[in-house]
Write a structure and sequence with these properties.
Helix content of chain B: over 70%
Strand content of chain B: under 5%
Helix content of chain A: over 70%
Number of strands of chain A: 4
Structural class of chain A: mainly alpha
Number of helices of chain B: 15
Structural class of chain B: mainly alpha
Radius of gyration of chain B: 21 Å
Distance between the termini of chain B: 26 Å
CATH topology of chain B: ABC transporter involved in vitamin B12 uptake, BtuC
Largest sheet of chain B: 2 strands, antiparallel
Oligomer: heterodimer
Radius of gyration of chain A: 19 Å
Shape of chain B: globular
Order of helices and strands of chain A: HHHHEEEHHHHEHHHHH
Largest interface: A-B, 52 and 55 residues
Number of domains of chain A: 1
Number of strands of chain B: 4
Mean pLDDT of chain B: 86
Number of domains of chain B: 1
Strand content of chain A: under 5%
Chain lengths: ~290, ~350
């Protein structure tokens, strides 16, 4: 019973972590109509940046975090300016391939700069487990879960109730119409890339803070895919629900199915859930339905 | 009386011919003779590289039909290839079937797996489809590691004895070379016919605008499913040959990154062109060989001390990522477009255009 409960709760928390990474996908997709496959690699770069600032440079933790957040914001801006700006209005395949190319390229670059060894990322907060009745939970994940919900509420409010956010929503709906209404499309897209860079650093702090990591951590970007698709690529509030669905079903799969298959079901189960739901609702649970014209 | 200039056809057959002029025939025959006598005068390493190129070529040509002609983004080609490889290996090892049965069956089984995603492509579009095909990769790995050990060997993989055809054993690189070269030439010839047929034109119509295609009477459901079916069939055949060449199959050989390499080959060569698929495959494969050869030498120089043995892997990634980004931004129509421009300027010389 305790095992089931701990699978459920830690599943839900991991689902929320996926939702945080998926939030980066969604913020970019809303603004630029681009799906950024390289999100997971930006998480890796942020984590290694924190390591570099704290370990070899010996900076205090708060300053390192500040620097890492600014650096990832800049990385987002640079990627947008150099790689995505020339491709505005290009066909879908180019946009898919360019961010996959970026993923692979950053992975190679990370290997060249930081190597393939395990790096211990210094924690931003105490890493003692949180005891909740009979179950122990990862403190990072607990904080992460709370933060994810806060961020989702914050961004939902931002995109629906502030002037800057509503401009970005208008840009998300149609670039040309937004442009003709006098909105600054380029600035909105750039801002979205910057914000998603910051979200990556946040995910890095929560996910790998206090743990050893290698470049393989970037695969979390792939693990977060089902959450983003399930929510629909335009919905931020929906991410929380999708994260919980994926996380809990992953936890249940680990509890009930793993003993039958000797492990490994948890990894593939979210994708199965995703395919089934996409076949029923092709734009996810809360994605915008567009009417296609010729 | 003056004769018309240029290449012109006088009969329907001439108009439909793949090879239209005498110089083209001469070059074509010379190329075929060169390719089939290559093992006689080249070293073992070259033949090894050529074998992998032939096999890759089949998978990439299939991907070209699926992605370049039908416009369906497919990130699961290597999973489809894996299905073919496992099927061929298991049929050979457990049932001892001859390869002229196992290779087509491997193709069909991969094609059926691929068609599932083709059916999904009818409802799921755009980025959602691209991401759905990634799921193929995860499903494939999970299935191969979890199905009964007696079938596919789970984590230990599947070992395959050398196969034979009519008493001719394919046990050395040179012998395998003839098998893969013949199958590859056949498959590429098939692709050429396919894209010029009604089916090929229907696929292009679906690519350019699926709603418009639907209105002019093309069965979009059928052709989307068919494009995945054909693409995966090519992958399955490539996988079967891979199994018979390497004689060992493991699910870790068929990763998402292999699919990305194949897409990179398409981008470098040129989308929507079979010649492009061939150019891209050959160039990227040669670049890969170049890095595998020179990577360790660079590592010895000690420019990048942290990287150590991972230098080959790191530079491969940077090559692949860099090439994809540069081509998508600066030359989205690929090298074949450049090649066509050069060819055209030769043809009309001394006029500028």
């Amino acid at each position: 019973m305790a095992s089931l409960l701990s699978h459920l709760i830690s599943g839900a928390l991991i689902g929320l972590l996926y939702a945080l990474i998926a939030m980066g996908f969604v913020v970019i997709y809303r603004a630029g109509r681009v799906f950024n496959f390289a999100q997971g690699e930006v998480v890796v770069v942020s984590a290694f940046l924190i390591w570099t600032f704290v370990q070899p440079w010996g900076l205090p933790m708060w300053l390192s975090l500040l620097l890492a957040f600014s650096a990832s914001f800049l990385i987002g801006l640079v990627i947008e300016r150099i790689i995505l700006r020339p491709l505005v209005g290009e066909e879908l395949f180019s946009l898919v391939m360019v961010t996959i190319g970026l993923l692979v390229f950053i992975r190679g670059l990370v290997l060249v700069i930081w190597g393939a060894d395990v790096h211990f990322i210094p924690p931003a907060f105490s890493i003692k487990g949180v005891k909740l009745g009979p179950i122990m939970l990862d403190r990072g994940l607990v904080y992460g879960g709370i933060l994810t919900i806060l961020m989702a509420v914050l961004f939902s409010w931002f995109f629906n109730h502030t002037r800057a956010g509503m401009e970005m929503t208008a840009v998300a709906e149609d670039h040309q119409i937004a442009l003709s209404l006098g909105l600054k499309v380029k600035r909105s897209i750039a801002a979205a890339w910057g914000i998603s860079g910051v979200l990556c650093t946040l995910a890095a702090v929560i996910f790998v803070g206090g743990k050893g990591m290698t470049f393989v951590v970037g695969d979390i970007g792939m693990a977060a895919l089902p959450v983003a698709l399930l929510a629909g690529l335009e919905s931020i509030g929906g991410l929380i629900l999708a994260g919980l669905i994926i996380g809990v079903s992953q936890g249940l799969a680990e509890h009930f199915l793993d003993p039958m298959f000797q492990g490994g079901v948890g990894e593939v189960f979210p994708f199965a859930v995703m395919i089934v739901i996409l076949l029923i609702r092709p734009t996810g649970l809360f994605g915008w339905k567009t009417i296609e014209r010729i | 009386m003056t004769l018309p200039a240029g290449v012109y056809a006088q009969t329907y057959d001439e108009d439909q011919a793949l090879i239209r002029t005498k110089p083209q025939w001469i070059w074509f025959v010379a190329l075929i003779i060169f390719l089939f006598t290559l093992p006689l005068f080249s070293g073992g390493r070259i033949i090894g590289i050529m074998n992998v190129i032939w096999i890759t070529l089949i998978a990439v040509v299939g991907l070209q039909i699926n992605v370049g002609y039908a416009g369906q983004v497919n990130l699961g080609q290597s999973a489809f290839m894996g299905v073919g490889a496992y099927t061929a290996g298991a049929l050979t090892m457990h049932f001892n079937l001859p390869i002229w049965i196992t290779i087509p069956i491997a193709g069909v089984s991969a094609a059926l797996f691929g068609a599932i995603f083709g059916i999904a492509a009818v409802r799921v579009k755009g980025f959602y489809l691209a991401l759905t095909t990634i799921a193929a990769q995860y499903v494939f790995h999970f299935a191969m590691l979890k199905l009964p050990k007696a079938w596919f060997g789970q984590i230990e993989g599947l070992r395959i004895d050398p196969v034979s055809l009519f008493g001719f054993q394919f046990d050395t690189d040179v012998r395998v070379y003839y098998l893969v070269a013949c199958v590859a030439v056949l498959m590429i010839y098939g692709a050429w016919g396919l894209i010029r047929s009604r089916t090929g034109r229907a696929l292009v119509a679906v690519r350019d605008n699926d709603n418009a295609a639907d209105i002019i009477g093309i069965n979009v459901f059928y052709y989307k499913a068919l494009s995945f079916f054909i693409g995966a069939f090519y992958a399955g055949v490539a996988g079967a040959l891979w199994a018979y060449y390497i004689r060992y199959v493991l699910s870790d050989m068929f990763t998402l990154w292999l699919s990305v390499w194949y897409l990179g080959m398409l981008i470098v060569g040129g989308m929507g062109s079979l010649i492009g698929a061939i150019i891209g495959t050959v160039i990227i494969r040669l670049l890969q060989e170049f890095i595998t050869y020179f990577g360790p030498l660079i590592a010895e120089l000690g420019i990048m001390p942290d990287t150590g043995g991972a230098i080959v892997f790191a530079s491969m990634n940077m090559l692949l990522g860099g090439v994809i980004i540069i081509f998508v931004i600066f030359e989205p129509r690929g090298l074949v477009h450049r090649w066509n421009i050069i060819k055209e300027s030769f043809r009309i010389w001394p006029f500028p255009h």
